[in-house]
Write a structure and sequence with these properties.
Blueprint: H1 2-9, H2 14-23, H3 28-38, H4 43-55, H5 58-72, H6 76-91, H7 94-99, H8 101-109, H9 117-126, H10 131-154, H11 160-164
Helix pairs in contact: 2-3, 2-4, 3-4, 3-10, 4-10, 5-9, 5-10, 6-9, 8-9, 8-10, 9-10
């Protein structure tokens, strides 16, 4: 799926592609950093562009998630989709329930599927974490996740070929 998206983004400058991939819920910075490195970008630039992309969705998503979800739940297919997403998020979010904003930061910082900024927004909404705490926790979690992914890439443990292949 990500390769299909990249095919359409191929006409854009590589910096923009990295920011956009970092913003996508499918890949977030777990995909953007290895992609940037595959483009030949220095690690520091790959990190900051990926973090920028991942962070730029946080504030709008926190503001818009509940009203958009409420509207879409009027349609049966979307209601089932959100039920599924909420259940998955609840299963992976024991630390958020226990530690609130700190737990949210830890949840987002773990660079695994269903634990990034997008899932953090959903969890913040589900557990009614106030905007300023949720925003700061998610941003801190994104930066930590970016550092972890960067280290894994630098050590050769994570690469774009492994993710796309």
């Amino acid at each position: 799926m990500l390769n299909v998206i990249l095919k359409y983004l191929n006409q854009l400058p590589k910096d923009y592609v990295v920011v956009i991939v970092g913003a996508l819920p499918i890949s977030e910075l777990r995909g953007a950093i290895p992609l940037a490195l595959s483009f030949g970008m220095p690690l520091a630039k790959a990190f900051w562009l990926s973090v920028l992309g991942n962070c730029m969705i946080v504030a709008p998503a926190l503001f818009l998630f509940e009203p958009v979800t409420r509207f879409l739940r009027k349609f049966k297919i979307w209601s089932r989709f959100f039920d599924w997403v909420f259940e998955r998020t609840k299963k992976n979010s024991d630390s958020i329930q226990k530690y609130e904003a700190l737990g949210l930061a830890i949840f987002v910082a773990i660079p695994l599927p269903m634990t990034g900024a997008w899932s953090g927004v959903i969890a913040a909404s589900l557990f009614k974490i106030r905007f300023r705490y949720a925003f700061l926790a998610i941003i801190a979690g994104v930066i930590c996740a970016g550092l972890i992914v960067s280290v894994l890439c630098a050590l050769g443990i994570l690469s774009w070929k492994a993710m796309a292949g």
